[in-house]
Amino acid sequence: MSASSTPWHCALRAGLAVVLSLSALAARAQDNPLRTPVFPPPAPASADTASANQVGNSQEFATPSVVGQGPSKGLVAHIERLTDFSIKSETKNGPPNTANATVTKNSRAFIKGYIPAWNRPHLKVILGINYDREEFQFNKPDNSVFFRNLEDKGLKVLGAQLAVIRPVDDVHWYIARVKGELNGDYTASELDVEDYLKMSGEFIYGWKRTKYFAWGVGLQLSYTFGRQSVYPVILYNRTFNERWGVEALFPARVSFRYNVSDKTLLFGGYTVDGMNYNIKLRQPLPNGMQTLILRETEFKPRLRLEREIYDFLWFGLEAGYRYNASFNTFDDEGNSGFSLFRKGTRPRIIDNTLGGAPYASIELFLVPPRKFLNKTLNK
């Protein structure tokens, strides 16, 4: 074999041929330039509906959203129902009394709406409103004054919130939110804002490592665990591959996600829910009290399906099991519902022990239409 035919010389000749060919193509391109020399970045996957947060684009601004998450919800209507469960009630303040019954109805419903008041890549301001209602019925309401007072009473929540999502740069972001709610059994004619107002809020600072992974740490002031308290939170959103991901705001909720398709999502995980109602009793307790605070805390393992019906309209089905951690009443006498931080501990009036129960819910929600999202991406 001659030196001129060695593998090294063959590779050199092939390389020279490629360079000459590319040079000729470049020369022709100068004479006849392309009409579209620069192409826009590819659009995100069709399952990614958070395009307002620039998900899927080159990361000019960081946000907590990741590719693969479900659609952002604009308007939500939700109904939830539990099966029958037992309740045992013990009076701790005043004449001792123990009562047992079965809760034959515990239904919940809410409507929530979110409006983007300001939507720019470097700043997003979202206004939210919500109305919730919860009702109870007992098989033996006469066994307890507390049962009789709670029977068919509408426990309501009317709230408004302001949330700010602020990307700092292509890696860092933060979320700030403040929320006010009127919680209790009030009617329009007897509503006293100071008695029923509950305030909550949060601040989370985070990092966007890739378009598939964002996380953050912060603090929440909320009633998730029954009483108003401040506790640390960890936000963790991650898409591992085209099917699997996780969405968490620990410790309040954690969900593992499975993307069946761009129109069907499955979730499995848990939530910790907390409610706090001010109640004015129809009939005084044996100790003479007529106002109470009811605190609920529950742990709910769950499975959830979200499915597109038509472009901007989706539905959700959820089922799980409710473990009740707290359903107790406390003295509200002489206390304002507006105070953000309280000193001391309220006297406990009634201890209630609730049995576990399966639950199911159905939900309809509106999301941004795909045409709108595509226009947003192409701007």
State the main characteristics.
379 residues; mainly beta; Porin; 4 helices; 16 strands; 12% helix; globular; disordered N terminus
Explain what this protein looks like in three dimensions.
The chain is mainly beta and 379 residues long. The protein has one domain: Porin (Beta Barrel). It is built from four helices and 16 strands. The chain has a 16-stranded antiparallel beta sheet that branches. The radius of gyration is 28 Å and the shape is globular. The N and C termini lie far apart (61 Å).
Shape type:
globular
Structural class: mainly beta
How many β-strands, per DSSP?
A: 16
Q: Determine the N-to-C terminus distance.
A: 61 Å
CATH topology: Porin
- pLDDT < 50 stretches: 1-12, 18-59, 334-343
Total helical segments: 4
CATH class: Mainly Beta
How many structural units, i.e. domains?
1
Secondary-structure topology with pairs:
Layout: H1 7-31, E1 75-82, E2 85-91, E3 98-120, E4 123-138, H2 145-150, E5 155-167, E6 172-184, H3 193-196, E7 197-210, E8 213-222, E9 229-239, E10 244-250, E11 253-261, E12 264-280, E13 291-310, E14 313-331, E15 348-354, E16 357-366, H4 370-378
Antiparallel strand pairs: 1-3, 1-16, 2-3, 2-15, 3-4, 4-5, 5-6, 6-7, 7-8, 8-9, 9-10, 10-11, 11-12, 12-13, 13-14, 14-15, 14-16
Keywords: Signal
Region (Disordered): 33-54
Protein name: DUF6268 domain-containing protein
